[in-house]
Specification:
By secondary structure, the chain is of the alpha/beta class. It is built from 12 helices and 7 strands. Helix 6 runs parallel beside helix 8, helix 9 packs parallel to helix 10 and helix 10 runs parallel beside helix 11. The longest helix has 18 residues.
């Protein structure tokens, strides 16, 4: 795939532009993932990878029953995932609803942990643009360092690409200094080809990160879908030199899976992408398994799951 940036952004022009996106070789993608999943990671490298994965996690709570107390508890865990062990790094960010941002910001004061806020009528993405912009601005004003927006999948699938483009551009502008992660909700897009087209569209419209899922739809993140998105990032980087990050989210629960994702990132984009500035996991339950695996590597025995908080 070698695609220039669009010269016009009405739906007809964008549809023509997206038709030039190279179709995805489904068998090739799935065979490459299957091969990379067999990579063996040795002990010292595994410990390094486990710590790196923790540093890449966005510890997340997106429930209607969220309370200020839960946000503060999650902030404490985000800063010190394993109290008493200074070798375990902080996570990358705490992700919450917009009305909880100020509480999270206060609880994380003085730490390296970012505050990420979902916005734009998460998780459906179905609302008026002026409300999406207002919600984004309120979240940033409250202290959000990052905004996770959702695209209007209905608009994308019906060919109204201009609406998707215009919303990403407008929300990016409303973010000001905050970084923008654009959630494609790949489980609703239906094909690798549409995942690639949506990735290309979001990147060209200004996304700082592209993200697989809200975590509210099944299937969520998968390795083949992530590889499709990583290849879109690589193509844009090779053509423009602009770095775009990647965030698989939803359904990643085990340390083994996390390491497989790191292998795929390394083999697709290289070691420069193995940093929280360029790659994230959106998977709160993953952190506990990473901590348990670190304990196993250090002591030879698994920790009791009850030793860790349930998030």
């Amino acid at each position: 795939m070698s695609l220039s940036l669009p010269t016009a952004t009405d739906s007809r022009a964008l549809a023509g532009w997206l038709r030039d996106v190279t179709p995805v070789d489904r068998i090739g993608i799935e065979e490459r993932v299957a091969a990379l999943k067999t990579r063996s990671i040795k002990k010292s490298t595994k410990v390094w990878a486990l710590r790196l994965a923790i540093s890449m996690c966005d510890l997340t709570t997106l429930e209607g029953k969220d309370t200020p107390g839960k946000i503060r508890q999650l902030a404490a865990k985000a800063m010190r995932p394993q109290p008493g062990n200074s070798e375990v790094p902080s996570v990358a960010a705490l992700c919450c609803y917009p009305d909880m941002v100020a509480i999270a910001k206060e609880a994380l004061a003085g730490s390296s942990v970012k505050v990420a806020s979902v916005a734009t009528a998460f998780p459906s993405g179905r609302s008026w643009l002026d409300l999406k912009i207002a919600e984004t601005k309120h979240a940033v004003a409250a202290g959000a360092d990052e905004i996770d927006m959702v695209i209007d999948r209905g608009a994308f699938l019906s060919g109204d690409f201009a609406k998707v483009w215009d919303e990403i551009v407008a929300v990016k502008d409303a973010c000001g200094p905050a970084h923008l992660k654009v959630i494609l909700e790949t489980g609703e897009l239906g094909s690798y080809d549409d995942v690639r087209r949506a990735s290309v569209l979001a990147i060209a419209a200004g996304a700082d990160f592209i993200k697989t899922s809200t975590g509210k739809v099944t299937p969520a993140a998968t390795l083949p879908v992530t590889l499709v998105m990583l290849e879109a990032i690589r193509e844009h980087w090779n053509r423009t030199g602009r770095v775009v990050g990647m965030k698989p989210a939803g359904g990643i629960k085990s340390a083994k899976e996390a390491i497989q994702y790191l292998v795929v990132v390394h083999e697709t984009l290289g070691p420069d992408w193995l940093t929280p500035d360029r790659f994230r996991f959106g998977a709160s339950s993953l952190v506990n398994d990473l901590l348990m695996q670190l304990e196993k590597e250090a002591t030879g025995a698994y920790a009791d799951p009850d030793d860790f908080t349930l998030d």
